[in-house]
Design a protein that fits this description.
Layout: E1 11-12, H1 15-20, E2 34-36, H2 41-54, E3 57-61, E4 92-96, E5 103-107, E6 112-115, H3 121-129, E7 133-134, H4 147-153, H5 160-163, E8 170-176, E9 182-186, H6 198-202, E10 211-218, E11 220-221, E12 225-233, H7 236-248, E13 255-260, H8 261-270, E14 281-289, H9 291-307, E15 311-314, H10 318-329, H11 331-338, E16 343-348, H12 354-368, E17 372-377, E18 382-387, H13 396-408, H14 427-430, H15 433-446
Helix pairs in contact: 7-9, 7-12, 8-11, 12-13
Length: 461
Amino acid sequence: MSGLKLDIRRYSTDPEDLLAYGFDASGLSGAAAVVAWPETTEEVIKLMRHASQMKAAVIPRGAGTGMTGGAVPMPAGIQMPAVGAGLPPGGAIVLSFERMNRILEVDDVNLTVLVEPGVVNGRLQRELAGYGLFYPPDPASLEFCTIGGNVAENAGGPKALKYGVTKDYVLWLEAVLPGGELIHTGVQTPKGVVGYDLTRLLVGSEGTLAAVTKIRLKVLPLPEDVLTLLAIFGDVGAAGEAVSRIIASKIIPRTLEIMDRQCMLAVESKSPAGLPSGAEALLLIELDGHPEAIKAEAGRVIEICRMLGAEVTMAEDDAAREALWRARRGVSPALYQMCPHKVSEDIVVPRGNIARMLSELKALALKTSIPIASFGHAGDGNLHVNLLPEEKKDLTPVLRELFEKVLALGGTLSGEHGVGLTKKPFIRMEIKPVELDLMRRIKKAFDPGGILNPGKIFPET
């Protein structure tokens, strides 16, 4: 592409590369003008300065596993900022962090780890295990998703019930502003309250405020033991009630996952895992800690589930436990194989309203004649709701009705996936005008030229 001279070692304008980096797991796609693969913070600074001078859009990208279009460079209907010489109108630079993938330091004295944004979550988990440590946030895509992407979306995962989400583990960030300025936020200590908490602001900002180049995370000692239970229910409402009763009993499992009948059928059709065909729902429950303590807690959990009609079994060994988790992590791909045009949402309601939300989903499916498959982190009220229409169609009215029910139960429209492109038409349902205007002003303070991941989060005015 004539006129484009990026001061960076690796970049491409090849059509194949532009195609490969033009979409993410949302199913949306766009067209970038350039894909760049920086290897150092200095290269990111140079790229951002270059883009700022050209008024070119920059789209930070991890592994493209996001579900809301956050890494899509130029989606239809989104007006990109004006661009300068070297990029065509509407063009964008995809800033891929996959080559910045080093684990820079494991500090087993202070229980922190310093990483670059391209480090894959699962790789970090395995590295830390060798030190007797672990990093709790573990999305279903942990074998593919990157820590930088997790920071951008404030990712959670099954262990969020007991251990929290990404924002609870990010201590310090190095990041590059759209104009090329380098900033450092946060602390390297367990406590720190000097100034505004810019670190928390950047976590979950979906790549719209700064490009993160280094991340220091808090880590924890591996628990002494883990115990895994599988509870099979003949009624999905009873499974939801079990979740509420377990938490009300003052037991906090490390995971408390739910799968409904549609999800179990999808998993079994793609990769049989021995899940019962006649069940309406299952709970996958894990407890960790001292062996004697979790055995006692497991006894109480089993009692609660059986009182609600469940059949409960315990994983005999690590192989049995891993087989159950393969089935759980395989739900989303299996549903996609069943219905390639499925629409996935990740609503959250207060834990005490899980049973009511499941009933509302059942009623919505009957009313609209659209099958709905639900799974997710029931222990913290986070359900991944999948609409499975027979053919591709506009589901906006159904989604709006779904979100109305969620908000009426005191919930939120997204627990993990963020807003991106897919949820921004609905953001005004939850965020009111004063707060939304404040967010826009924060965006402008960080990015006065509007070049960093434009078109995401905020609805058009």
